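Entry, Tuesday afternoon. Goal for today is a structural model of the target with zinc ion bound, before we commit to ordering more compound. Inputs were pasted exactly as handed over by J.K., no edits. I checked the ligand SMILES twice against the vendor sheet because last time a stereocentre got dropped in transcription.
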Amino acid sequence: VKDSQVVEADWTWTGAAFEPGLQVVIGADGTVERVGRLDSRPTLRLRDRALLPGMVDAHSHAFQRGLRGRGERFADAGGSFWTWRQAMYELVERLDTSAFYRLTLQAFREMRAAGITTVGEFHYLHHGPDGEDHACDELVLKAAARAGVRLVLLQSFYKSGGVGKPLAGAQRRFRTADLDSYWRQMDRLAERLKPATQRLGAVAHSLRAATPEEIAKLYAEARRRGLVFHIHVEEQRQEIADCLAAYGRPPLLLLLERLGGAEALVAVHCTQTAAADLARLLAAGGSVCVCPTTEGNLGDGLPDLQALAGREDALCLGSDSNSRISMVEEMRWLEYGQRLRQQRRGVLRDAEGQVARRLFAAATLGGAAALGVPAGRIAPGSWADLVALDVNAAALGGADPQALLDAFVFGASEEAIVATCVAGEWREHRPPRS
Ligand SMILES: [Zn+2]
């Protein structure tokens, strides 16, 4: 049994601002017990540090870390999402289970060092090269435990290779036979989770990989079990055209009709979603996960996020393909993409006009809500998942504490993060500056 800790940094983020002199009491169970000016003797005094909640990466495919630096040269006509997907399938064909584990561990370690304390791993590469053995599923749990990141394993249902098409080639390693075998594997995995740092979420990969009937049944069972439900939606125009041809509705509208609600539904991307459909999703209790660096890398487009005005709880961020692992960069790209789209400044702002605070809420509270995890804030009842910034780091030095979050979000990156904590367990990442 661990001892409880009293942590005091020079500055602590309250959700609204950085305040000096706050003490955070972390219980032996790894949760925050109290926060305030408590007159306790700190067991950990973080000088020249600012304490923030750890960031939440709500959408990752860790093994795609293996594509970084590949496929960025375009000899002929340039590429597209679909040529990238072909390269991803070629990576899948090459990966045995040990290579899959190495890449997953590499991505998760990079996340922890980048201040990502929770990852939602949208996991669809289930099987090893030799048959339907689910060999990769438990490797994700093992890699997350070893890297020290909190994991929500978003276990993907994947049955067809396109609307009305069988699985082909590399897709066979993604295969789920039917709903019963999906939930049987979920039950097996539930027994193997580390209770303090791991949980499950349910997923239909996309309307390419499952029928509307299958998705509706999955969603109903996920709700019955109290699990969050994630799905890729409307990243590409082709997906919308295919869905219109098959079902007479664009994907998101079809889902909203068939699911009968959207509580705990996280629609990933919504790059091509009509503004009215996104508003319907939010009104029905759903939320959206945007993955700006991946959507930029793949040339997907810029989403119309006007429906998110005043809805800070309904937005989260993901590193998706992991071509870059930096929630700071995801935050910046999210806002800059909207500025470029609308040709104005300060698009994603909170009720008081603060952009960095709104973006940081998406990277913490929004992600935690999307994954169903009590995290993303430094408050009693939340996991003690924390990030310590070096206030003298080159990119932050001289920032007024009242502008420190803005300086971090708009001018810095993970080089300013010197330590992280997951469920009360600390790790240092960079040598402290003199
Ligand atoms: Zn994805």
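The CA atoms of residues 156 and 203 lie 5 Å apart.
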